[in-house]
Amino acid sequence: MSDHAPNTALLLVDVINSFYEAGQPNFYPEVAATLPALAELRDTARERDALLVHAVERHYRGLADFEFSKLPRHHEDGAHDADFFPGFAPVERANEIVVPKRRYSGFYATDLDLVLREQGIRRVIVAGVKTNVCIRATVQDAFAGGFEVFVPREATNSNRPHLAEASLEDIDRYFGRVGSLAEAKEML
After folding, report:
1. Is residue 71 part of a domain?
2. pLDDT at 73 over 80
3. Which of the chain's ends, N or C, has fewer CB atoms near its CB within 10 Å?
């Protein structure tokens, strides 16, 4: 029996040039391994008309930002590193939106929680980069807000594999479930 439900949304986190284009500030070669799974999830969400949220880091151009105390200035609105990686830009359809975020979590200081609740969403599939930073922060806030969380292992990784593994272990134990791409596609 399928676990497909209209109350499931797909969150694609930071599928932008900064991480996925060689030569960009946050690129790491292993990130390419996530692209086939991310594309399958994206396509499945669109085929089934599931809510697809592109949660992408965007900072105000030229303004001070607390995050810059930890990281060099990055992902400013309109900059190339903040643009969607080719093939992952949103398409024009009612169930596909962009939620800009200024911190690691897609929930913190955004309207993501409100949008999900207004659409009757109870479960989120979280995929993208990096497992130990933006994925973990988004998952933790989703759980804190009362959403069921699923992370498909094939659809996330990090340039620090040991931290990615530790984060997936923590996610599976404390915040949600880590499983396969096939399971995630069944849920959409």
Report:
1. yes
2. no
3. N
